[in-house]
Automatic annotation (TrEMBL):
NCBIfam families: PRK05751.1-4, secB. Its main location: cytoplasm. It is found in: Cytoplasm. Homotetramer, a dimer of dimers. One homotetramer interacts with 1 SecA dimer. The gene is secB. The lineage of its organism: Bacteria, Pseudomonadati, Pseudomonadota, Gammaproteobacteria, Nevskiales. This is Protein-export protein SecB. It comes from the Bacteria. The keyword Cell membrane does not apply. One of the proteins required for the normal export of preproteins out of the cell cytoplasm. It is a molecular chaperone that binds to a subset of precursor proteins, maintaining them in a translocation-competent state. It also specifically binds to its receptor SecA.
Amino acid sequence: MSNEESKQVLLQKIYLKDASVEIPLAPAVFTRQWQPQVDVQLQTAAKPMNDESVEVVLSVTVTTKLGDDTAFLIEVHQAGLFAVRGFDKDSEERRAVLGAYCPNQLFPFAREAAADLVQRAGFPQLLLQPVNFDALYLEHRKRAAAEPGAETTPAAADGVARTH
C-alpha cells in the first residue's frame, strides 16, 4: 500500500462544545423595526488529543446590530474529533486538512446550531452563507508567509487558519 493510500481523515465524533445567546436590549429590541446589520466571524483551532486524534473546533460568532445597538450576539463552538492518519506531523498537507477540510465538515452543524439559537431567541431566520474554508486557509497561509514571525503563532504552528 502506498503512502497516499494510507492517508485517512475520519470524523470520529461531532459535538456542540459551547453555545451562547445574548440579547442585551430584550425585550425592547423586539419593538424596533428590523433592519439589521449582520457580522459573522469565523475561527478554527486544532488540538492534538493523541498520536492520531485531533479535536478541531470551529467558532462562529454572529453579531447583529440595529444601528449602533446590538440586537443579539450568538456564539457557537462546533467541535469534531478527527482521526488523522498517514500525514507527516508538520506537513503542509496535514495543516490544510486541519485548517480547511475539517472546518468544512463542521460548518453545516455550526450553521444549523446558530440558526436554531437565533430562532429560539425570537428573531427572524438567519441563514449563514456557505464558506470556502479552502480559500480562507490559503489566504491565511499567504498572510502568514508575508508577516515576519507569523509562523510562530499558535494558530500557524497548528496549521489552522484563523479568519474574520
